[in-house]
Amino acid sequence: MKMRSWLFAPGDSEKKMAKALAGPADVVLCDLEDAVAVEAKPLARDMVRAFLTAHPAERSRIWVRVNPLDGPHTLDDLVAIMPGRPGGIMLPKVYGRADVELLDSYLTAFEAMHGIARGSTPVIVLVTETAEGMFHTGSYKGAPRVIALTWGAEDLADSIGASSNRNPDGSYAFTYELARSLTVLGAATAGVAAIETIQGDFRDLEGLRLRAEKVRRDGFRGMLAIHPAQVEVINAAFTPGEAELAEAREIVALFEANPGVGAIGWKGGMLDRPYLSRALALIAQAEQA
């Protein structure tokens, strides 16, 4: 599946969910957690299930962020939405791999109940929203259903009692840059996609472009969005450009023309096998996009 842009839409707003789905986001995340007040959660669950039911052809794009497992709402969320066959689940505020395994057991039961193929509901995990979770970012290799890891800075600040997660110049403080690094390392260890967290200032599209392009170079494969205006910028940033692809194809062709060679001269320098691996990965990423 394409995973460049993941657009949140509050689960208690049919209008915003519909607008998100009508746009170019690769994934629409119907939110039952932070975007919905406690008293509105029962209605939001019904609205998300109705939304899924009304758009059967788009279900693979419609994911749901459920409430965290350490609270009282997760099972109620799943009871309501699983008959609608969501494309996937976002699990927030995890403490470690055990949370994913518990969610897997829940999803397996609901899939059996509703005639859904066992194991077919994938999961993206928010791995840095709790202090404890930071110590387990490398534990998701082979975890059931997980296809992507992402991170969050706001809930992490709350978890550790910080008054801010930013430096005076507006950049993330060290702990939160560490969270970003641990996410991409954890995703690489697990063999799944790393997804960058949101940019809160949805009006700063140039800043968004620069950040998205940077994190793609760092190994991320997509980014969370909070506003439809951000989606096209994110999609473009995570779609390799023609110049990049031309260079990647040239590198692949060079190695194909010289089979068995470990390193080869190119444009005044030397290329070894990691360059070939990165070129092949870039081409595959472009084909997916």
From TrEMBL:
The keyword NAD does not apply. Residues 4-228 form the HpcH/HpaI aldolase/citrate lyase domain. Pfam families: HpcH_HpaI. It comes from the Bacteria. Its cofactor is Mg(2+). Keywords: Lyase, Magnesium, Metal-binding. One of its GO terms (molecular function) is magnesium ion binding. Mg(2+) binds at residues 129, 155. GO terms for biological process: oxaloacetate metabolic process. The keyword Iron does not apply. Belongs to the HpcH/HpaI aldolase family. This is CoA ester lyase.
